[in-house]
């Protein structure tokens, strides 16, 4: 299936054979805008552990969706950066904002009877704490962090775990992500993947990853998620 950036949205083909009953969301860049907080936390962690010089945040962002220790390994940076990065992320969590339209999307999906989960590159405790502070945690039946599966994204384990917890087959699910790692995880689990473009990621790279749907604003997902029959 060829996906063009002008498609709004592209109806899933192939993997999603029936309207979804389950939606699995990535967290950062999909539900919440945390990039300013990430930048500051990364800069502090880099200065504390590595020392002087500019922190390579732009490279870090290119690996979004992966677990922090995996990103450090890929970038050749010390694993010890994780402690100050997590510490600063907690300290600055009050500055994270929910994207416009996300609350309305979650409310509508819940009214329509869909079950929701989060599968994130963050550690599970940190993800749940952030969602709780933003008032979003009650929308999700499960929030799964990368430290709670054997292999984090781009492996399919975290999406498979979400389906297991929700007792849903892959053909009844769709995964919403803003990074190629999200789409790879979904594809590996046999789940349709939708590219979320409202944060302004590297569009070309994300579209090249072969999403089944392209969403430019949160409300676009509603066209793919009608009410669950009998709800």
Task: Describe this entry's structure for a reader.
- With 231 residues, this protein is of the alpha/beta class.
- 36% of the residues lie in helices and 13% in strands.
- The protein is built from nine helices and eight strands.
- It has helices at 35-49, 57-62, 68-75, 82-91, 102-111, 124-133, 157-166, 180-188, 203-208, and strands spanning 22-25, 32-33, 97-98, 115-119, 142-144, 173-177, 192-196, 213-215.
- The strands form two sheets. Strands 5-4-1-6-7-8 form a six-stranded parallel beta sheet, with helices on both faces.
- Strand 7, helix 9 (203-208) and strand 8 (213-215) form a beta-alpha-beta unit.
- The two termini are 32 Å apart.
- This is HAD-IA family hydrolase.
- Keywords: Hydrolase.
- InterPro entries: AHBA_synth-like, HAD-like_hydrolase_sf, HAD-like_sf, HAD-SF_hydro_IA, HAD_sf, PGP-like_dom2.
Question: What proportion strand?
Answer: 5-15%
Largest sheet: 6 strands, parallel
Q: Give the rounded overall mean pLDDT.
A: 92
In percent, how helical is the residue content? 25-40%
Low-confidence stretches: 1-6
Helix and strand pattern: EEHHHHEHEHEHEHEHE
Shape: globular
Determine the N-to-C terminus distance.
32 Å
> What would you call the structural class?
alpha/beta
Tally the beta strands. Answer: 8
Report the total helices: 9
Cα gyration radius (Å)? 17 Å
Read across the widest sheet, the strand sequence of neighbours is 5-4-1-6-7-8
């Amino acid at each position: 299936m060829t996906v063009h950036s002008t498609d709004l949205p592209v109806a899933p083909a192939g993997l999603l054979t029936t309207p979804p009953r389950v939606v699995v969301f990535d967290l950062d860049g999909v539900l919440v805008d945390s990039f300013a907080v990430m930048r500051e936390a990364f800069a502090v962690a880099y200065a504390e552990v590595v020392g002087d010089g500019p922190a390579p945040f732009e490279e870090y962002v290119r690996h979004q969706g992966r677990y922090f220790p995996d990103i450090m390994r890929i970038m050749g940076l010390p694993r010890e950066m994780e402690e100050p990065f997590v510490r600063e992320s907690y300290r600055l969590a009050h500055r994270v904002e929910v994207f416009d339209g996300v609350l309305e999307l979650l409310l509508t999906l819940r009214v329509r009877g869909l079950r929701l989960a989060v599968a994130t590159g963050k550690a599970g405790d940190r993800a749940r704490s952030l969602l709780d502070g933003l008032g979003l945690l009650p929308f999700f039946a499960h929030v799964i962090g990368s430290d709670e599966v054997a292999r984090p994204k781009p492996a399919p384990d975290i999406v498979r775990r979400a389906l297991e917890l929700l007792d849903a087959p892959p053909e009844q699910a769709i995964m919403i992500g803003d990074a190629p790692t999200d789409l790879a995880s979904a594809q590996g689990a046999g789940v349709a993947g939708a590219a979320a473009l409202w944060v302004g990621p590297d569009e070309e790279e994300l579209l090249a990853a072969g999403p089944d749907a392209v969403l430019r604003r949160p409300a676009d997902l509603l066209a793919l998620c009608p009410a669950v029959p009998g709800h």
